[in-house]
Design a protein that fits this description.
With 137 residues, this protein is mainly alpha-helical. The protein has one domain. The protein contains 5 helices and 2 strands. It has a two-stranded antiparallel sheet with strand order 1-2. Helix 1 packs antiparallel against helix 2. Keywords: Membrane, Transmembrane, Transmembrane helix.
């Protein structure tokens, strides 16, 4: 019974992750980058390829929606673990799509909590999974 509650908790965290991606994309100006003069500016003002750094957040939202849909079909514990590991690896790889934007600068200078939540949620998911593994031994 406790295993089911952990899976439901993971799904709630996934829904929150998708919500954070949506809020970041629609209600913020995007990533900040460090100018040559030592100040921060938004990447959408760039004329180069670094101006589309928000595509990484689109990818994150897509992978977490896909994870949520697949988690409805896979109910076994090993399948859930593999699916979560794959999703978190995709989370890390999609952050590699950011060219000019600064995650740290966006969180600290722009006081962007949505991006902070997006970065913290995979850690929270692994903690839920770790608690799940310890309680079933």
């Amino acid at each position: 019974m406790l295993l089911i509650s952990r899976i439901i908790t993971l799904r709630i965290v996934i829904i929150f992750q998708v919500f954070c991606c949506y809020k970041f994309l629609n209600y913020t100006k995007g990533f900040l980058y460090f100018n040559d003069d030592g100040s921060y500016d938004y990447t959408d003002k760039l004329q180069s390829s670094g101006g589309e750094d928000e595509v990484s957040i689109y990818c994150l939202g897509f992978f977490y929606i896909l994870y949520f849909i697949l988690s409805l079909f896979f109910t076994k514990k090993k399948a859930q673990i593999r699916l979560l590991i794959f999703t978190v690896i995709m989370h890390i790889l999609s952050l590699g799509l950011i060219q000019m934007g600064s995650i740290y600068g966006t969180i600290t200078q722009d006081k962007n909590l949505w991006l902070l939540f997006i970065m913290i949620n995979p850690i929270l998911m692994f903690l839920i999974l770790l608690l799940n593994n310890n309680e079933t031994k």
